[in-house]
Amino acid sequence: MTCPLCRLSRAFLPLVGIVGLVAALAFHAPQAPSKKPSEPAMTGSSQPSVFVVDDVHSMALFRVQHMGAGKFWGRFNDVSGEVKYEEGKSISFNISIDVSSVDSGNSKLDAHLKSPDFFNAVEFPKMSFKSTSANTLGGDRFDVSGELSMHGVTKQVSVTIEASRIATMGGKTRAGFEGTFEIKRSDYGMTYGVEQGSIGDQVRIIIAIEAIAASS
Are the beta carbons of 67 and 41 closer than 8 angstroms? Predict the structure, then answer.
């Protein structure tokens, strides 16, 4: 007499073999590579924003030694031009200053500063600075090189620029910049008082600029 359980086992053996074969093939089949999350599309390099100098809130200061003693300060009130700036990445300047806007706080001294002894405002009514290159110094500081034209002479200078911040108030976007550098007056043909030592040759210049985005 044949065992019923044995007959049932023999009936299921082919089915078990098929299931095992399918499982083995599935296990050893090459796996499709997992799909990576989509990456953002690359965009073109951004362009620096153009800022137009606000002549009401911009100025150039200068400091020179007087009579071998104190350090005398003066300023130019009329500053114009534009700045191209991309935060932390690039900066360039094209700045013009009206020599007749020199302001020492004394009208007689102002007249002397505008005379041929110093800036000669009639013959050279403008001074300018146009940058040619800029290197980042980290953060919002830059080492900017460019051409300073004054008193009929153009020379290369290096200016340390600090960009303060960009802010939008009153419907306009503004940016602030401050630059410091030194020159010799004699390099620009202004030698009055140098040989006698009554007025120093070395001059420190600070230019403070507030500019408004051209798109504002």
Answer: no
Residue 69 DSSP one-character state:
S
Are 215 and 49 in contact, with CB atoms under 8 Å apart?
Answer: yes
For tokens 């191209």, name the residue.
84
Q: Give the gyration radius of the chain's Cα atoms.
A: 36
The predicted model scores a pTM of: 0.76
- 48: CB partners within 8 A, 6+ apart: 84, 85, 86, 89, 90, 91, 92
- d(C-alpha 15, C-alpha 26), whole Å: 17
Reading the block at residue 33, the tokens are 């590579």
Report all structural domains of the chain as residue ranges with CATH numbers, in order of start: 49-213 (2.40.128.110)
Could you list the pLDDT tens digit for every one of the 216 residues in the chain? 444 434 434 444 343 444 443 344 343 444 444 444 433 333 345 789 999 999 999 999 999 999 999 999 999 999 999 999 999 899 999 999 999 999 999 999 999 999 999 999 999 999 999 999 999 999 899 999 999 999 999 999 999 999 988 999 999 999 999 999 999 999 999 999 999 999 999 999 999 999 999 987
| Contact call for residues 48 and 91 (beta carbons, < 8 A) | yes
